[in-house]
């Protein structure tokens, strides 16, 4: 059962995430063209668009896995300054490990498939400096519980788990350090519809309870509709439309968005 979406929250704070003028090409292929993004604290930004429109590239940029040819990226956090694209590798890694969580569509990208599920989550805590075994175990268990992972499977490696459970382990790992920003790249794509609905329920509940700022990428408008407060529509590396989710879905302005919305109906 999917929970109803809340009405859009009223935005009063400065954006947590700001990207300006981001351009990225892979050889002759333009993946992102002059992309601007603002994500406000506590909101869920949904990014939609057809395959190859640049959604995943943009999310990987937010996780500092990719560097653009030009553009800037800032996070409005007390101890984080300047353009994050200028950070050295070590600083990027520490920032991502401690302040940004990510869930990939493919669990092999986010998890060590043959380590225990609790060990996967504990590894994130180890990177942040926690060394006490009892604390690691307790915090990993708590993150897995918040992700509604069945706790009798704590010691099972992801390779032995269902797709839905693997995504819950990724989610637990992503939220273990209470990140300022949670990135979700097609987190339910490939799951059975019923499992997809349960994982979406968990995400919705987490967002409501913890007010985590989220960016979710999906080609599935239903997923975006369920979770997002605001939507950005991408096509061929460009943002063609952005606005409150209800407005964009009910009254799409750009011909491409109209096509997407009507194709879904
Ligand atoms: N590492 C890479 N090397 C070369 N080209 C790439 C690379 N990553 C992305 N691209 C290209 O950049 C464009 C945008 O890709 P991206 O994966 O961001 O799109 P997407 O909207 O996430 O698509 P999908 O929904 O299929 O994942 C595509 O043309 C893709 O082929």
From TrEMBL:
<dbReference type="Pfam" id="PF00005">
    <property type="entry name" value="ABC_tran"/>
</dbReference>
<feature type="domain" description="ABC transporter">
    <location>
        <begin position="17"/>
        <end position="261"/>
    </location>
</feature>
<keyword id="KW-0547">Nucleotide-binding</keyword>
<dbReference type="InterPro" id="IPR027417">
    <property type="entry name" value="P-loop_NTPase"/>
</dbReference>
<keyword id="KW-0067">ATP-binding</keyword>
<dbReference type="GO" id="GO:0016887">
    <property type="term" value="F:ATP hydrolysis activity"/>
</dbReference>
<dbReference type="GO" id="GO:0005524">
    <property type="term" value="F:ATP binding"/>
</dbReference>
<dbReference type="InterPro" id="IPR003593">
    <property type="entry name" value="AAA+_ATPase"/>
</dbReference>
<dbReference type="InterPro" id="IPR012700">
    <property type="entry name" value="PhnK"/>
</dbReference>
<dbReference type="InterPro" id="IPR003439">
    <property type="entry name" value="ABC_transporter-like_ATP-bd"/>
</dbReference>
<protein>
    <submittedName>
        <fullName>Putative phosphonates utilization ATP-binding protein PhnK</fullName>
    </submittedName>
</protein>
<dbReference type="InterPro" id="IPR017871">
    <property type="entry name" value="ABC_transporter-like_CS"/>
</dbReference>
<dbReference type="GO" id="GO:0019700">
    <property type="term" value="P:organic phosphonate catabolic process"/>
</dbReference>
């Amino acid at each position: 059962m999917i929970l109803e979406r809340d009405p859009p929250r009223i935005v009063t704070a400065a954006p947590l995430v700001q990207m300006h003028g981001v351009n990225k090409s892979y050889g002759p292929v333009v993946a992102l063209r002059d992309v601007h993004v603002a994500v406000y604290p506590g909101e869920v930004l949904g990014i939609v668009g057809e395959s190859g429109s640049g959604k995943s590239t943009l999310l990987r940029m937010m996780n500092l896995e990719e560097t653009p040819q030009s553009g800037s990226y800032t996070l409005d956090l007390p101890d984080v300054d300047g353009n994050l694209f200028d950070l050295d590798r070590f600083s990027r890694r520490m920032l991502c490990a401690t302040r940004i969580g990510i869930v990939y569509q493919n669990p092999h990208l986010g998890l060590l498939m043959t380590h225990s599920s609790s060990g996967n989550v504990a590894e994130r805590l180890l990177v942040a400096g926690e060394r006490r075994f009892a604390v690691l175990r307790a915090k990993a268990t708590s993150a897995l519980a918040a992700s509604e992972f069945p706790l009798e499977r704590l010691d099972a490696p992801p390779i032995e788990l269902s797709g839905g459970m693997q995504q819950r382990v990724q989610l637990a790992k992503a939220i273990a350090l209470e990140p300022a920003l949670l990135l979700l790249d097609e987190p339910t794509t490939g799951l059975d519809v019923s499992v997809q609905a349960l994982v979406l329920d968990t995400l919705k509940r987490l967002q409501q309870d913890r007010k985590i700022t989220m960016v979710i990428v999906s080609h599935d408008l239903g997923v975006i509709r369920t979770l997002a407060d605001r939507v950005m529509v991408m096509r061929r590396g460009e943002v063609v439309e952005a606005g409150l989710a209800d407005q964009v879905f009910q009254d799409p302005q750009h011909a491409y968005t109209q096509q997407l919305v009507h194709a879904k109906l």
